[in-house]
TrEMBL record:
Keywords: Disulfide bond, Endoplasmic reticulum, Membrane, Signal-anchor, Transmembrane, Transmembrane helix. It is found in: Endoplasmic reticulum membrane. It is a single-pass type II membrane protein. GO terms for cellular component: endoplasmic reticulum membrane. Residues 16-177 form the FAM69 N-terminal domain. The keyword Endoplasmic reticulum applies. This is Divergent protein kinase domain 1C. InterPro entries: FAM69_kinase_dom, FAM69_N, Kinase-like_dom_sf. It comes from the Eukaryota. Belongs to the DIPK family.
Length: 415
């Protein structure tokens, strides 16, 4: 009997080696595809998994290189003297590195601040073309006028945020016209304009209590105030200094923070010429001031309406292709294009990713009466549910009313 045939003369299970080989290859391909998909999902949920290790040694080297460039006249900024000469801006620790971005904590004249840059090295940013034909002494750029630089700045703002400057002044970016060391100042200004978060925070300076102001810059690094970020590890998602864990104190703080989140959502939806979309809503990207005001401390993924429409309007074959982090659109299967209109909202994502933790879990604060807790849970679930855009204004005011009622109830119990 031929080898590889069974008793009835048919091929055995592996008699046809090609078929077995094909089956093994298919199984291997399926296994590999499964791991690739799992890795992609992991990176989608935790983009910092492959981030570079954050160390004090490397962070100090980065700032030392920054100061060498400053002392050599290649860059400038209003914080450079304090950082590189006077020692009034002192490095403290590395906060994180993520996809090239460097975020460091420092002390500036007794005030905790955060130094940020999208890239490690000043040379990583494209140079300002106006400087190409100029000699490299520090006074060589004195012939430049604001009128020459403004069209370039307008173009960068348009590219970063999809916005036109309100009028012909650099003051709207909070930058002003550079002073001494003009060549280094202009080169630094250009590097800062390549960083979307810097441009956005500069434009919001003085206009929003929910965004940290830019305090100054040196080269491609800019400084903002240091606020303790939230984390899923915190029982209340955010560090609430001076508030006791559990009980009425925490319930009062959580209700106050939730109201501030609603204020922020309304502010970003209605108080600017274009709606500001937050596409990466998670505790780590927000902080809480002592008065419970919510501050968006990481706005790398925040976009005004014109830029949001540009991002969303892409080719697609299904709705999932139209998801940009927390900002979703719908796929038009007739033309295979994502709609430019966002299908969900800041409010819906805040309810889903923040409020659910506080108000939808079974043991939510017993300091608030059971009927009110049940109403809050129901309102949050309605708010977080997909497809509630049409009902969003009603749900917003319902949540606001219930949170205010919770604060009144807690206040009455204290008296």
């Amino acid at each position: 009997m031929a080898r590889g045939l069974n008793a009835r003369g048919r091929p055995g299970r592996c008699g046809l080696r090609g078929r077995c080989r094909l089956g093994a290859l298919l199984a291997c391909a399926a296994w590999t595809a499964g791991w690739v998909l799992a890795a992609a999902l992991l990176l989608r949920m935790h983009p910092g998994v492959l981030s570079e290790r954050c160390t004090d040694e490397k962070s100090r080297r980065i700032l030392a290189a920054l100061c060498r460039d400053y002392l050599g006249g290649a860059l400038g900024g209003d914080l450079c003297e304090d950082l590189c000469v006077a020692g009034r801006l002192r490095y403290q620790r590395c906060l994180y590195y993520e996809r090239g971005k460097k975020v460091l904590q420092a002390d500036w004249r007794g005030r905790p601040v955060v130094l940020k840059s999208k890239e490690e090295a000043f040379s990583s940013f494209p140079p300002l073309g106006l400087l190409d034909d100029q000699p490299e002494d520090e006074d060589s750029s004195r012939g430049f006028s604001e009128a020459e630089l403004l069209p370039l700045v307008v173009g960068e703002v348009k590219s970063a945020l999809g916005l036109e400057l309100a009028n012909g002044s650099l003051g709207h970016l909070g930058l002003g016209w550079p002073g001494p060391r003009l060549r280094g100042q202009l080169a630094s200004l250009w590097a800062l304009l390549q960083q979307e978060e810097f441009v956005l925070l500069s434009l919001l300076r003085g206009l929003s209590p929910h965004a940290p102001p830019v305090l100054g810059s040196c080269g491609h690094f800019y400084a903002v105030e240091h606020l303790a970020a939230g984390s899923p590890r915190h029982r209340a998602l955010f560090p609430l200094d001076g508030v006791s864990q559990g009980g009425r104190g925490q319930a009062r703080a959580v209700s106050g923070v939730a109201l501030s989140f609603l204020d922020m959502v309304s502010h970003f939806d209605h108080d600017f010429s274009h709606r500001l979309h937050l596409c990466d809503i998670k505790p780590e990207n927000f902080a809480i001031r002592n008065d419970f005001t919510v501050v968006a401390i990481d706005v790398d993924m925040a976009f005004f309406e014109p830029k949001m429409r540009e991002i969303l309007e892409q080719n697609c074959t299904r709705d999932e292709d139209c998801n940009f982090f927390d900002c979703f659109s719908k796929c038009d299967l007739q033309v295979h294009r994502c709609g430019a209109q966002r299908a969900n909202s800041n409010l819906q994502v805040v309810c889903d990713k923040i409020f659910r933790h506080w108000f939808s879990s079974a043991p939510s604060s017993p300091a608030i009466s059971l009927p009110l807790r049940l109403q809050l849970r129901e309102a949050v679930q309605e708010c977080a549910a997909p497809g509630t855009q049409a009902a969003a204004p009603r749900v917003f005011w319902k949540l606001r009313h219930l949170l205010q009622a919770a604060l009144r109830e807690l206040q009455e119990e204290d008296q």
